[in-house]
């Protein structure tokens, strides 16, 4: 396969998995946080912590975070961590926007500046090639 | 308690991500997504020492995060969880030998500042 079409294939696959990673993470964390806040302070006992898994919102959050884990692992099987980490930070923007538009929280000037900086950072990193190492070059 | 959780969260997340990236690079690109191929990949990953280390670290990170959001506001917990961005980029360069060019450094820095602003 010529290098250019190989790069295009990897780029398209990276885009798709980035979307899955971001959406499952944002939705999973929101469900989990919502559930934990409903439960309040549960103390430090491991048993109480395991008990939280039976709360429906916590359970939904955990299920989505399992999707996140598997898609994140797949993405990291070909893409650099120094690419995946900043690019998936767009999730912070989605979390902020959903809080502001769905929950009706106020959007302050500082929030908009933060959204602008994150979006600029994600765009900048998104311009780089997703994979700069090849597996053969990594010693175990 | 709060700062113990913060330290645990940052350390475990960093270790978890670096070990996961290393383990998955050792595994090689996941190319097939039909159930049989996924089952085979999961079976191989369950015996990959980096992936095992990563999964244990991620479990610690997960419980530290849910404990933290139950005792501290999200405006505190979210920037803390993003504090791993810079150390992880440094480790990706040093330990994973990734080519981190100026756009990745600048991007990571912009995002770190942005996350703090967005959480206020």
Percent of residues in helices of chain B comes to: over 70%
Q: How many individual helices of chain A? A: 6
Model regions low in confidence, pLDDT < 50 over at least 5 residues of chain B: none
Strand content of chain B is: under 5%
Radius of gyration of chain A: 18 Å
The major pleated sheet of chain B works out as: none
Instruction: Please describe the biggest sheet of chain A, giving its number of strands, its sense, and whether it closes into a barrel.
Output: none
Distance between the termini of chain A: 28 Å
The separation of the N and C termini of chain B measures: 22 Å
Give the chain pair forming the largest contact, with residue counts. A-B, 55 and 52 residues
Number of helices of chain B: 6
What percent of residues of chain A adopt helix (DSSP H or I)?
over 70%
Total strands of chain A: 0
Secondary-structure element series of chain B: HHHHHH
Helix-strand makeup class of chain A: mainly alpha
In total, how many beta strands of chain B? 0
Averaged pLDDT of chain A: 87
| CA radius of gyration of chain B | 16 Å
Q: What characteristic shape of chain B results from the CA principal axes?
A: globular
Descriptive notes:
The complex is a heterodimer of chains A (140) and B (120). Chain A has 140 residues and is mainly α. Chain A is 72% helix and 0% strand. Chain A has helices at residues 3-39, 46-51, 56-76, 81-87, 90-101, 109-126. In chain A, α5 packs antiparallel against α6 (109-126). Chain A is flat. The two termini of chain A are 28 Å apart. Chain B is mainly α. Chain B has helices spanning 2-27, 35-45, 49-71, 74-82, 85-94, 102-118. The longest helix of chain B has 26 residues, at 2-27. Classes of the chains: A mainly alpha (140), B mainly alpha (120). Chains A and B meet through α1, α3, α4, α5 and α6 of A and α1, α3, α4, α5 and α6 of B.
